[in-house]
Amino acid sequence: MLEPEIAAHPLDLEKIRLDFPILKRTVHGKRLVYLDNAATTQKPQQVIDAISDYYSNYNSNIHRSVHLLAEEATEAFENTRLKVQNFINAQSTDEIVFTKNATEALNVAARCTTSSLKPGDKIVVTEMDHHSNFVPWQQIAKEKRAQLEIVFTTEDYEIDESDLESKLDGAKIFAFTHMSNVLGTINNARKFTRIAHEKGALVVLDGAQSAPHIPVNVQDIGCDYFALSAHKMLGPTGVGCLYGKRDLLLKAPPFLLGGDMIREVHRDRTTWNDLPWKFEAGTSNIADVIAFAAALDYLTRLGMKNLQIHEQEICKAVLAELSKIEDLEIYGPKDPERRGAVFAFNLGGIHAHDIASILDAEGIAIRSGHHCAQILMEKLGVPATSRASFYLYNGYDDVDALSKGLHKVREVLN
Ligand SMILES: Cc1ncc(COP(=O)(O)O)c(C=O)c1O
Does residue 206 have its Cβ closer than 6 Å to ligand 1? Predict the structure, then answer.
């Protein structure tokens, strides 16, 4: 068993694991070692109970009827909005729009920021962006005959700052990831936002991987839009959020049209609802939004700073252990302070899917493939990688299991 230099970490893992029923199950007769958290995290009992409580006790549509059940559901739904506001330190609940995931949130942001784009205007993204923060901009650039610029990644797996500075010249929009889902790189969002603003560009920050792992303060960062997905931070699937500065959301056109997002409908014209409901057309994913509050409570109770310290300790242990494996290459920064606990790697010439299959037989769940980042794969010169991603219920025993599993992969395939 691994003996890390700093044995004490700020989370009580034994207690935490009891909250996650799925961690009790076995996979192929082995203890489940769940290391696919960048794809989606497991759910604590508190979140599962909140979904069941809604359907068992106050299932009703929201914002419409005056009966008690509808009032209770509306209050719980809006209560989640308040918790998201506090979690990312937005100025008001008007700035928090519920979507179905981070992808939809980024698409809404793209529509908001590009409605007045003219031919030749410049949109800047980076090589390390997830497809969800790349494809919408690429397609809008084509539609509007705008220019799409892609900022390079350095050999140290960071955004190339001099390339960034020059590509931001004259740009209208800069969209980038706060934390890479492949490299683990945590980008200096505050600094890059300042540079983009100085050059006159709006900033859209993809927080799908940062919000679950590090404290986020959108006012301090200064970004104009910020997107997250609930399912990557203990919450249910089907819920995302877009933060947008109030004055920008007020000016932006709605994304989807229909019920709930209108104020008045006449035969020849329609007026829009107040913020944030202008962006929430049709019946929302009520149960899952309500249950997301339980996830936010869970994270807040543990403390995001504690969680970050825990993951930095895990990072140190993973980097130390995996460096002992011959021919194993990790794609990402070596400094635990500059990265999250997501590790993309290749092992010799072994195919990433073979690694994942052998680890699966050991009860270890990782992901293999291009991780929705084909531009980055092309840059790294590989078709795919394996990826192990850790979260608050993962401990040194999981690092140990991964390391043993990878030794086994070598044994089996050599
Ligand atoms: C960096 C990043 N952005 C966006 C997304 C999209 O999230 P979702 O699939 O929940 O919309 C992901 C998902 O893996 C991601 O890692």
Answer: yes
Boundary of a domain, candidates 254, 272, 301: 301
Q: How far is the CA of 297 from the centre of ligand 1 (A)?
A: 22
In this structure, the residue with its CA closest to atom 14 of ligand 1 is 39
**Residues annotated as catalytic (active site), given as ranges:** 372
Q: Within a domain: residue 6?
A: no
Give φ, ψ of 232 to 5 degrees: -90, 0
Q: How far apart are the first and last CA of the chain?
A: 25
For residue 238, the CA-to-ligand 1 centroid distance in Å is 12
Question: Same domain, yes or no, for 280 and 196?
Answer: yes
User: Which residue from 204, 383, 377, 214 is spatially nearest to 309, judged by alpha carbons?
Assistant: 214
Nearest atom, ligand 1, residue 100 CA: 11
| Whether residues 67 and 34 fall in one domain | no
Q: What pLDDT band is residue 2 in, cutting at 50, 70 and 90?
A: very low
312 CB within 6 A, ligand 1: no
Given a cut of 50, is residue 170 above it in pLDDT?
A: yes
Q: In what order do the strands lie in the sheet with 367-369?
A: 328-331, 342-347, 385-389, 367-369
Are 191 and 247 within one domain?
yes
Q: Which domain holds residue 403?
A: 13-43+303-413
Write down the pTM of the prediction: 0.97
> In this structure, are 355 and 407 located in the same domain?
yes
